[in-house]
Amino acid sequence: MTLILTTNDAMKIAAHHSIVWFARRILSGLVVVWAAATFAFVIQCVLPGDRAQIIINVTSGNVGLASSAELAAVNAKYGFDQPLAIQYGKYISGILHGDLGESYQQHRPVAGIIAEQIGPTIVLAVTALLFAWIIAILTTLFIAGRDNIWAKLLNDTQVFFATAPPYWLATILLVVFAVKLRIFPVIGGSSPVGLILPTVALALELSGFFGQVVQNEFTRVLEQPFVTSARARGMSEFGVRLRHVLRHAALPGITLSGWALGKLLSGAIVIEVVFARQGLGGVLVAATSSRDVPIVSGAVLISAGLFVLVSLIVDLTYRVVDPRINLT
After folding, report:
1. Could you tell me the pLDDT band of residue 131, with boundaries at 50, 70 and 90?
2. What is the mean pLDDT of the chain?
3. At what angle do helices 293-321 and 251-274 cross, to 10 degrees?
4. Which of 16, 57, 208, 256 would give a disulfide with 162, using CB separation of 3.0 to 4.6 Å?
5. 314 by DSSP, 3-state: which?
């Protein structure tokens, strides 16, 4: 018996596969966030030193030993005197209700502190990602598959930027364009002008990495038969590169964009310190130096959630760029 699928049946099957794929991605994302939450909890428990003593020292600014009564009061307030299983259960329950704990130093909810500062950090990371893609695409369009001095020069420049530490690039940009030439402000703040140098510092390294990945795939795609057909139809060389080759060559780079944005979020924190920008950078530096563990743990958890979200968006974008790809 021959089974013939109608268009409607095929659409139903495709929709079913998409729903199953989406459900799996959501489930795997939840597992990643749960693992990050568990890691953050374990870190709080295994760090050297008594947690109650650390909180008292951070609050008072002293390093002496607290009395038994003071330690008991702090343990009771934060629930440190309860079994670890109960502490873990309350910690996970709090996360599910949006409670990431209370800062040891600021005595405020961690969720509120991160919410106040994460906006500029996300803006910087996303802007740097877009700028990196613009640089990578423009250089690839002009140098991929070509053998001349300009192509070699741009290729070597990409390799240099791909291996240059963003912190070093940020320092050079700050000294040259802010301190010496005074084109940009030394303290970035939160203004659009103050966003330029931090964005360039982050984007240059990533553009070199993207450029190398996309350029290699671009050169391979140039040799495909459909490219020859497009040229035979009279399409210009630039049109062939832009409309046909780039679409396929960008797929490996798109796959790496989720990882790249996660890298940019961590890199943005360092760059914010260099340019004295508002964001998570200053908060995390202060929290790390004062052992304000809830803030650091909250940042780890939020970063994991953002990574899961970005990975899902990247997968969907991958499907939009090339609809032939099946979601599995």
Report:
1. very high
2. 81
3. 150
4. 208
5. helix
In sequence order, the 6+-apart residues with CB closer than 8 A to the CB of 118 are 279, 280, 302
Question: What does the DSSP assignment read for 250-279?
Answer: THHHHHHHHHHHHHHHHHHHHHHHHTTBSS
Contact 244, 227 (CB under 8 A): yes
Beta bridge partners of 109: 102
Coil, helix or strand at residue 189: strand
The whole-model pTM stands at 0.76
Q: Which residues, in sequence order, are CB contacts of 144 under 8 Å at separation 6+?
A: 214, 215, 218, 219, 222, 241, 249
User: Of 114-128, 131-145, 233-247, which gets the smallest average pLDDT?
Assistant: 233-247
Phi, psi of 188 (to 5 degrees): -65, -40
100: which 2 tokens? 């990431």
Length of the chain: 328
CB atoms near residue 268 (< 10 Å): 29
Rounded to whole angstroms, how far apart are CA atoms 56 and 74? Answer: 8
Q: 198: which 2 tokens?
A: 């931090």
Percent of the chain with pLDDT over 90: 4
The DSSP element (H or E) to which 174 belongs, if any, is none
For residue 63, CA distances in Å to 52, 53, 72, 279 come to 13, 9, 18, 29
Give the sign of the dihedral formed by CA 166, CA 167, CA 170, CA 175.
negative
Structure tokens at 20: 């199953």
DSSP alpha helices (H): ranges in 47-148? Answer: 51-60, 68-78, 84-96, 110-143
Q: What is the mean pLDDT of residues 55-64?
A: 76
Average pLDDT over residues 80-97: 88
Kindly report, residue by residue over 5-28, the tens digit of the pLDDT. Answer: 566 666 676 666 778 777 888 888
* Close Cβ partners of 15 (under 8 Å, ≥ 6 residues apart): none
